[in-house]
Structure formats: C-alpha cells, structure tokens
Design goal:
Length: 375
C-alpha cells in the first residue's frame, strides 16, 4: 500500500519530572532516540493488539504540551510526513533524533522558551492501514489512558539518558493530551480560554464564542482569538465607584496577560476589536494629535498592586488642565520600549512622570493631573 494511504494515529510518551530536577537537555541524539523507540515498540505491542502491523515513528524531543497543541499540529504532521517518505524496507520502527543537538526539522525541535515544565512529552505516531487503523485508534483511546504505564526498560533508559529521576512515564493518545491540558487549564482558571482554544485546534473552520472569567467576550474565528478593546468594554460597564473601575481594569490586564502568554505558546493570535492599533504586548487608544503650541507631552505610568505598570498615557498640560493624547494598556514586553513608541508616534521628546497608582473615574476614563514629578 502507498504511504499516502496510511492513516496516522498520534500519541505522546508523557514524562513527569520532579520540579527541582529537570533534564539539562531537551533532545535525544539519533542513537538514543532509536534505542528508546525500540523499547517503546515493545511496550506498545503489550498494550495494543495488532500494533505490530503498523509503523511506529518517534521524535526524540522533550516538548511542552503547548508546542504540540498548535494549529494543524505541526510536530505530529512533520513526524508523519518524514516517516511516510521512508521505504518499508527500513523497518517498522523509525526514530528521528538530533545530530549535534539539531533535529532534522524545525517543527521537531522543542522550543527552549517553553522549557521548565515538570511535564514533558515525546511525540510519536503509528502509521497504519485504514482497515486495521480504525480499530487500533479505538484501542489507543481505551487502553492507554487506563493502563499505559511505560515498561521498566523504557523508563530506566530515559532516566539514564536524561540523567534525572522520573515520577511517571506513560503513554497517552493525542486526545488524552488534549483532555489533560483542558483539566490543567481549568485548574489554572483558564477554562474560558480553553473553550475557544480547543476549536482552533480541532475544528478550525468553525467559530466559537464565550466570556472570559471577568466578562470580556472571547471568540475564535479564522485562526485567531478575538476580544473586545478592554477600555471600551470598561466604559460600557457599570461601576459603583472609581476604585471599583480601577480594580476592574487591573483585573482585565492581569487576565489578558495570562491569555496572551498562553496563546503565544500555542501559536495563536489574540486580536482586539477597536479603532486604534494593537500589538501582542500593547493596546493603544489614540485620542488626539499633539498641539505644537503647548509644552512637550508627558508620559504617565499607571501601576496596580502586584502587576507593576499596567498602562501608559501620553498627554500635554495647559495650566492645570491635561489633554490626553493616547492611552496604552501594557500586556507584556519592556516598558521603556512602549514609552519610546508612544513618544515617537507623537513626534516630540516626552518626559516620563513618576509612576502612580492607576486612577480612573466611575465611567472608566483615566484620571490625569498636571501635579506630577517629572524625571
């Protein structure tokens, strides 16, 4: 049968490390990957009847779940593609490891930015004839989650190869990995985000909508997660006091920072629906152009407890009256770079005022005063 007629049944070998003892390297060299794949093949023959008729392909990299769960599942897709290219004469077990620390394809290289999790995953897939593959896939969903503990030879080899103790080593299907990630996100308070992230992975041609824990609308559509401009949303929400409005805004920034970090790891964009401009780390609301007849603009930094600077404003003073030119919510990145971008946008050198705790009125509008120390 032609390799193009085979179906792919993806899974992972899940490694639970001790939080204080993580592997120093995140890829296995070719020889080590081949040895591991041979041990895994023995395990899978024990766990999955009929697996011997399929072909096992392993990528010798230790991945964070977020990198494996990206649109179109690039790590699994590349693994399947590379394995399907090789003739059957090369055997039923194939391993793609590193050579001098470099994996054979970029999508098979773990992202070092995501390193540090005690849960690590080695992706693998079974390539099988469709006639037998459907039953094999059903067996994976039933057997692996229930009794998928790796064999002693597999676990011992990994402990020696990685030079770290391992709490657990077990097999999961990719669906199991999705379910496990869902539970982890729920425990982290990210259930609303998962409800739009999962469709982006499994049904990318459909749309899905929900509300964040703080009430922001979230919608998956056309490869991105969309939400409202938080300042616009804030002004349409009733608040009993300016203090409550300020707390609400700080909570929105905290939530969006979490969402932006998670979505970046999954290679999904977070987009804001508004008339200004936005980047992954900054949302700007433009209000007016600078007035050449007034003094140079001043940058105001707004802080919130536990979050540091959550917003910047650029404004010009006219006596005791302050004319705001723009507000920017800071979702990530370096404050100095955001301040410089605002100053460049308004074409004047801007002094930075001493950071102050954020103040908004009950309608959610920033409160700026000219009585501030410049530095």
């Amino acid at each position: 049968m032609d390799a193009n007629d085979l179906i792919s049944l993806p899974g992972v070998l899940a490694l639970e490390c001790r939080p204080d003892e993580l592997p120093a390297r995140i890829v296995l060299e070719r020889d080590a990957a081949e040895t591991l794949a041979a041990h895994m093949a023995e395990d899978l023959q024990r766990l999955l009847p009929g697996v011997a008729e399929s072909r096992l392909a392993l990528a010798g990299g230790l991945f964070d779940a977020a990198q494996l769960l990206r649109p179109q599942f690039p790590a699994f897709s590349t693994l399947e593609e590379l394995a399907a290219r090789l003739p059957r004469s090369q055997g039923g077990v194939i391993a793609f490891g590193a050579r001098d620390g470099r994996m054979p394809a970029q999508s098979l290289a773990p992202d070092p930015v995501l390193a540090g999790s005690p849960m690590l995953y080695l992706p693998w897939t079974l390539l099988a004839d469709p006639a037998a593959g459907h039953a094999l896939g059903e067996a994976m969903e039933v057997e692996l989650i229930g009794r998928g503990e790796a064999g002693e030879r597999t676990a011992d080899f990994l402990i020696r190869a990685l030079d770290v103790p391992l709490e657990h080593v077990r097999y999961l299907s990719r669906h199991d990995l999705l379910a496990l990630t869902c539970v982890q996100y729920e425990h982290a308070g990210l259930a609303p985000l998962w409800s739009v992230l999962e469709p982006a992975l499994l049904t990318p041609d459909k749309s899905e909508s929900t509300l964040s824990a703080r009430g922001l609308p979230l919608r998956y559509e056309a490869g991105a997660i969309h939400t409202a401009h938080p300042l616009h949303w804030l002004r349409q929400t009733q608040h009993e006091s300016p203090e409550e409005a300020a707390q609400t805004l700080a909570g929105l920034v905290f939530e969006l920072r979490q969402y932006a970090a998670v979505l970046q790891a999954h290679h999904l964009a977070l987009r804001f629906e508004h008339d200004g401009d936005a980047e992954p780390t900054r949302i700007v609301e433009h209000l007016a152009e600078s007035d050449a007849s007034l003094p140079p603009p001043t940058l105001h930094a707004h802080t919130a407890p536990g979050l540091g600077i959550i917003a910047l404003s650029i404004a010009q003073a006219e006596g005791n009256h302050v004319h705001p030119l723009a507000h920017a919510l800071i979702i990530g990145g370096r404050i100095q770079e955001h301040a410089q971008a605002l100053a460049r946008r308004y074409g004047r050198d801007a002094q930075m005022a001493e950071p102050k705790r954020i103040r908004v009125d009950a309608r959610g509008r920033f409160v700026l005063t000219s009585e501030t120390t410049l530095h």
